[in-house]
Amino acid sequence: MAGRILERREPDQPGARLLGGGTAPARRSQRRRRTDDAADQQRPHPLAPGRIVGHGASVDAGTGGDAARDRAAAARAAALLPRPCCDHAAVRICTLGDLLLDVIVRLDRPFARGDDAPATTRTRPGGQAVNVAAWAAALGAEARFIGKRGDDEGGSLVAARLAELGVDVRGPISVGGSTGLVVSVVEPGGERTMLSDRGVSPELAPGEIDPAWLAGCERLHVSGYSLLRLPHFDAALAAAAHARAGGALVSVDLSSAALIRDFGVAAFLGRLDRLAPDIVLGNELEHAAIGAPHAATWALKRGPRGCLVGGPGGETVELPALPADVIDTTGAGDAFAAGFLLGGTLCEMAERGLAAAARCVATLGSMPR
Questions:
Q1: How far, in Å, CA of 145 to CA of 174, rounded?
Q2: Cα–Cα nearest to 298, from 38, 367, 290
């Protein structure tokens, strides 16, 4: 549990190197601050209460303290990622998926069908892979998004905003095509309903993937939506091959239990197995839909109940969510994914994911501020 547990392949070699550790490219070595494994082993668990479970045995982490101590521990965990983290400044995370214009409508009172409802609206970049890239950049990683967009105002607006957030946007522009659009309706309690039009995003083809976009990539994160349509899935396979040729790990977010069932569980698992991700993330409904993690490292996102994550050695860590004033839950799972993918020990990965998710739910929309 104390060591760094998530492995990364060496380029074109059967061996592996540790995610967040090991030998970095020379051009990055001076920017990355190393952490000694012995120090990792002595680092106290910053969350209380929680459970660390290993090979069938579980122990309490931080239980038995009073509420004040628990709040202090949660505050320390939340402080893990309040700003760009220099430890991960050299980590390059590439994401592949839909580039969307996200229209967020926050209702001031519960929706009444057929009646007017006062609301606050905002427009921001959206799409699962876009969200992960934006949060990765906010947490200090080098972030790149790969996807197809239209040559319309929506596509230009989204690309410009992502550049402001520190995300390098790559991918073909469809002449006369429409950039995808999502309308997110947020209830007063923070629950959301999404109306989606993916536009030209699913039309991304494998021949449109430039290997140079994956150069230096250490993690390629693929939205599960990309597995549901052709040629998008073939493009994901091509990107994964280019990324793995350079030693990158591939992660997948399952994205939607309903869409997995509509597509066909067996068919979806067939595509998931072809992509062969090293990491799989999803919520409880999504994991239940596929029946097993299908990856050596996995994360079960439980919303207000925190997370349960597992590593290659069979160990698992279960942690509670951090306290937060919930405004909007949109993108919280994507923020978690970005924090999780920064690497480190299994416990550190879960903590960073939860801290990023707590930041996300405290603001309107899925983008970091």
A1: 16
A2: 290
Q: Calculate Rg over the CA atoms of the chain.
A: 20
Structural domains of the chain in order of their starting residue, each with its CATH number = 50-96+128-148+201-361 (3.40.1190.20)
- Can you tell me the distance from the alpha carbon of 9 to that of 244, in angstroms, rounded to the nearest whole number? 8
Side-chain half-sphere CA neighbours of 65 within 13 A: 16
**pTM for the full predicted model:** 0.76
- Residue 234, both tokens: 């073939």
- Which of 167, 170, 171 is CA-nearest to residue 141? 167
CA angle 225, 228, 230 (to 5 degrees): 115
The C-alpha atoms of residue 102 and residue 365 are separated, in whole angstroms, by 8
pLDDT tens-digit profile of 31-80? 333 333 333 333 333 233 333 333 232 333 333 344 443 344 334 333 33
Q: CB–CB of 120/246 below 8 Å?
A: no
Query: How far is 266 from 268, CA to CA, in rounded Å?
Result: 5
